[in-house]
Design a protein that fits this description.
The chain is an alpha+beta fold. It has one domain. It has five helices and nine strands. A hairpin with an 8-residue loop joins strand 7 and strand 8. 16% of the residues are buried.
Length: 194
């Protein structure tokens, strides 16, 4: 009986996931009000990240990842919400930037069956990026870190990238070789593992 209930719950959940990850939530991006709040994003079924970690919309993300992995068109809206913790930054930085927080960035992510499209507006300018691949990277944190690991989905155009550490090393390097180029990427999902 227990197995049957688990299978039934999984079947129902996968049906919900598949249906809810097809279209972007309302309102249309152009109609998102300037005072759009964290609660609004959760109510509107966005995939919400607070200070970099997913806090709402996990089933929506899972549905998007499954459909995209199958090559099926799908879309999801991402809401990246950041606060400024006085205890984690210098006093100078906090004093200079405290009035800019909290801040939320909204991104629309869609997959047309071939390409991933990422769209957002920042500072009054529109941005669009296209990527061929979405890769999942699972990793461990350094000893003594607050979390033991992470799951990160990254959009890329370079299928040879094999790890988040490869991207991170490039970001931290002061050496850039024009013949190898920079790895173009966008992080679209992040979950920290306790």
């Amino acid at each position: 009986m227990k197995k049957l209930l688990i299978l039934l719950a999984a079947a129902l959940l996968s049906g919900c996931i598949t249906k809810t990850a097809i279209h972007l939530p309302s309102p249309p991006y152009a109609d998102i009000p300037g005072d759009y709040s964290l609660d609004d994003a959760k109510r509107d079924l966005c995939v919400v990240f607070e200070d970099g970690d997913i806090t709402s919309g996990q089933a929506l993300w899972d549905g998007f990842a499954v459909r995209a992995g199958r090559g099926q068109p799908c879309a999801v809206r991402l809401a990246w919400y950041y606060t400024l913790d006085e205890s984690r930054v210098s006093l100078e930085y906090y004093a200079a930037n405290k009035d800019n927080y909290p801040v939320m960035y909204i991104q629309d992510l869609s997959f047309d069956g071939k390409l991933f499209h990422l769209y957002w507006v920042e500072g009054g300018s529109e941005y669009t990026r296209e990527y061929r691949y979405m890769k999942r990277f699972d990793g461990s944190m350094r000893q003594g870190a607050l979390y033991s690991g992470y799951v990160r989905y990254v959009l890329l155009n370079d299928e040879t990238v094999r790890s988040w550490e490869q991207i991170e090393a490039q970001m931290l390097s002061s050496v850039w070789l024009p013949e190898t180029g920079r790895i173009e990427f966008s992080t679209v999902y992040l979950k920290y593992i306790p």
